[in-house]
Amino acid sequence: MTIEDGRVRILKDVEPRGDAGYVLYLAQQANRARFNPALEYAVGEANRLKLPVVVCFGLLDGSNGFPEANARHYAFLLDGLADMAAGLEKRGIGFVMRKASPAEIAIDLARDAALLVLDCGYLAIQKRWYGEITGAVEGRIVQVEGDVVVPVEIASDKHEYGARTIRPKIRRHLDDFLHPLRAAPVKHKATTVPKGDVDISDPAKVLAGMTLDRSVPPVRRFRGGESEARRLLKAYLDGPFRSYGAGRGKPEAGAASHMSPYLHFGQISPAEIVLAVREAEGGSDEDRDAFVEELVVRRELSMNHVNTTEHYDRFEDAVPEWAQKTLHEQAKDHREHRYTDDQLIEGETHDHGWNVAMAEMRVTGYMHNHLRMYWAKKILEWSGSAKEGFERTLRLNNRFFLDGRDPNSFTNVAWTYGLHDRPWARRPIFGTVRYQSENSLRKIDFKAYEAAVEKLCAAETDED
After folding, report:
1. What letters, b where the CB count within 10 A reaches 16 and e where it falls short, cover 42-81?
2. How many CB atoms lie within 10 A of CB 384?
3. CATH of range 315-461; options 1.20.1090.10, 1.10.579.10, 3.40.109.10, 1.10.540.10
4. b vs e for 396-433, b when ≥16 Cβ sit within 10 Å of the residue's Cβ?
5. DSSP output for 313-371
6. Coil vs helix vs strand at 10
7. pLDDT truncated to tens, each residue of the chain (464 aa)?
8. Element (H or E) spanning 419, and its range?
């Protein structure tokens, strides 16, 4: 078992309680029973203290639901939690789930814990929970990073200009944080656990009993859970990965790993993926480098952005000044096409290629990165103002994508408006913000892509 020292932060440095019943781990960002540094840290401490481990999860519901989450997101999350719970049970680790905020359940259960272990996330709501917990829990609190390869503050303690500035910083530390993490034996099984009020053994029943937005239904294309994530990863490395370098920019090529929803919900570790990619047979060094660039450098650049930008979801704060200025200068430019949110959602625009990509997103919860850029740039072009475009792009992104409401989402939407980019040639509406034309669709086999989308959408709506 290897948990790098740089992943561990002591948030409250007091001795573990001697009269406690268990070591408590709040699973918030890392929802998996294996290759989870926070969980393995809890197991190690529990073994040392001769105590069992209890894992808890707070399920937000109703008016207290996670912002912008809907039935699509919750179905995937609950499938993953059921898989995690089964994995924990096999290891002899207790699991408690309640309809409560993560802070509420952690504060309550920490009263009987020797220490509390947290994992790590960078969204404002997550930071607020951690603040509530550290303010209310009197015992020892340890936070262990497992959502990135290189811990964010080790990579950089400032807002990075772009990939070119953070890349060497991440690569300098990369090998220091890429070690296998095997599940440690649990020496003291959890025979009794605190009471919960959610039985995750039937995730469909839990979903049916929740009060939430059901206008965006669950998808069949992706099933949640760490077991499914590892199955997909193995199948990917045995086949499509071998053409990743040449095919990653072509949606019809099938070279994408589809790991992003599983990463978003913490159902697989990015370090586990990188190690598997390094060990995979087939594929070139160029394929591996390109994959690591996307998974580590680009993804962790987004973590840097949300960690160092207080209001990363606001146009005025997320978009750099030069881009705001040039977009404002073009604000009165004529817009040949203007669409409402409903027209965009239904794919009722003049742009057939955009409509097809929107159908994939609306129905299956996914869209290839190459098309995501085009999709977002066109919303800017078709909106009444840059601020309106930013807000509606983020709104649609977070509503329909399985991996929406993620640091990558907030960062990529802001990139559409100039974040992590530079000025380009001036154009109407965009000013000197990068423009993307319909010609970008000519670089792909669009007929093949459209046929694939039609098949995927049909599978989602097939009653059988």
Report:
1. bbbbbbebebbbbbbbbbbbeeebbeebbbbbbbbbbbbb
2. 11
3. 1.10.579.10
4. bbbbbbbbbbbbbbbbbbbbbbbbbbeeeeebebbbbb
5. TSHHHHS-HHHHHHHHHTTTS--S----HHHHHTT-SS-HHHHHHHHHHHHHS---HHH
6. strand
7. 689 999 999 999 999 999 999 999 999 999 999 999 999 999 999 999 999 999 999 999 988 889 999 999 999 999 999 999 999 999 999 999 999 999 999 999 999 999 999 999 999 999 999 999 999 999 999 999 999 999 999 999 999 999 999 999 999 999 999 999 999 999 999 999 999 999 999 999 999 999 999 999 999 999 999 999 999 999 999 988 988 877 787 888 788 899 999 999 999 999 999 999 999 987 788 889 989 999 999 999 999 999 999 999 999 999 999 999 999 999 999 999 999 999 999 999 999 999 999 999 999 999 998 899 999 999 999 999 999 999 999 999 999 999 999 999 999 999 999 999 999 999 999 999 999 998 888 889 999 999 999 999 999 988 65
8. none
Q: Identity (one letter) of the amino acid at 123? A: L
CA 411 to chain centre: 12
Rounded Cα gap, residues 97 and 150, in angstroms: 30
Q: Report the DSSP beta bridge partners of residue 143.
A: 9, 118
Edge-first strand listing for the sheet containing 22-26? 8-12, 140-144, 113-118, 22-26, 53-58, 94-98
Please, are residues 119 and 29 in contact by the beta-carbon 8 Å criterion?
yes
Q: Indicate whether this model's pTM tops 0.90.
A: yes
Rounded to whole angstroms, what are the CA distances from 8 to 5, 70, 102? Answer: 6, 33, 20
Residue 1, token pair as written in the block: 């078992």
Delimit the domains of the chain by residue range.
315-461
CA distance 378 to 416: 10
Show Cβ contacts of residue 131 under 8 Å, excluding neighbours closer than 6 positions.
none
Q: In the structure encoding, which two tokens stand for residue 351, read together?
A: 């742009």
Residues 6+ apart with CB under 8 A from 181: 1, 2, 3, 35, 36, 37, 40, 269, 271, 272
**How many CA atoms within 13 Å lie on the side-chain side of 34?**
17
The angle subtended at Cα 28 by Cα 27 and Cα 29, nearest 5°, is: 110
Residue 207 to residue 61: CA distance in whole angstroms:
10
